[in-house]
Amino acid sequence: MTADSHEAAPTGRGTAYREAAPAREVRTIAHLVMDLAVRQQSLSAGTSWVWAERAGRSPTSKELSNSGFEGSCWLEGPSGARNLLLLLPGLGDKPASLARLAESMALPETSALALRAPVALPAGLDGYMWYNSFTAEGELLQADSLEITRTRERLCRLLTMLESCGWPSHRTFLMGYMQGGLVALDLALHFHSRLGGVVSVCAHQDDVKVEEAASAIQTPLLIVASTECPKQLSSAQRLCRRIHEQGGHVRLSEIQGSSIRSEREMRPLMEFFAENLELHCAMLQNDPSIVRVQ
User: Fold this and answer.
1) Which of 127, 173, 227, 232 has its CA 20 to 30 A from that of 76?
2) Strand 83-88, strand 172-177: pairing
3) What gap in Å lies between CA 6 and CA 153, rounded to an integer?
4) pLDDT-based confidence at 187, cuts 50/70/90?
């Protein structure tokens, strides 16, 4: 592969994004997200609030297998968690590393599901991919539109199953890395209703077909691109312009390497989740006029 490639070569150790932010820094996310969210919420005098929807449950192994995501890792959130974060790994990687990242992030009132990509790597290599990505000679292929469509349909079936478990799409978030970021963006642009939000990290955005997107792009998007790869960054900038032209809400955040490694680089993600997670504001919980439905 060339220096402009956006995926690491598959190995037993997975892709480059495994170098996540140090745990000491990432553990501050839950507190910062809650603090930012609380600042954005206010009460009107005499307002009465009702929590009408219950928290979801964890999907069973059979449900995940029937949806095509056997081997995925579930991380239970705090009691009463109302949001769900789906983590989509890059080419060649496994869900365990993303499960550790989700555990370190500890987003407030959020459970997480680190997905195992549905297609095993060829030639007995250890790892998975979201769609067939190699020629018979082992050369990396560009994303095929038919393969992307099949992957999107698989993810739609997963979301339907998760909704039956109590996780509606408007409280379901996707965070994908590299190839996983590509399919997460594609789903957001074509899904029939609003998702909670989608974060795409170091994906190959030229393979995202905005022109074929739904008439109204409803899902908030955050695209993270590396300044060390000018081709990736310029591709992300073009994609953001195209999404804006179609009325979508998207932000671009820049990082220096192939993964998020500092609190400064993590800050845009904190702000994104703070704005879009559905949280029980402390001000509301302490208001005697609230009726909470269990």
Assistant:
1) 127
2) parallel
3) 24
4) very high
In this predicted structure, the answer to whether residue 129 has a pLDDT above a threshold of 50 is: yes
Task: Supply the mean pLDDT for the chain.
Answer: 81
For the question of whether the overall pTM of this predicted structure is more than 0.85, the answer is: no
Measure the CA–CA gap between 155 and 125, rounded to whole angstroms.
24
| CA atoms of 200 and 221, how far apart (whole Å) | 8
8 φ, ψ (degrees, to nearest 5): -80, 150
Per-residue H/E/C for the chain: CCCCCCCCCCCCCCCHHHCCCCHHHHCCHHHHHHHHHHHCCCCCCCCCCEECCCCCCCCCHHHHHHCCCCCCEEECCCCCCCEEEEEECCCCCCHHHHHHHHHHHCCCCEEEEECCCCEECCCCCCCEECCCCECCCCCECCCCHHHHHHHHHHHHHHHHHHHHCCCCHHHEEEEEECHHHHHHHHHHHHCCCCCCEEEEECCCHHHCCHHHCCCCCCCCEEEEEECCCHHHHHHHHHHHHHHHHCCCCEEEEEECCCCCCCHHHHHHHHHHHHHHCCCCCHHHHCCCCCEECC
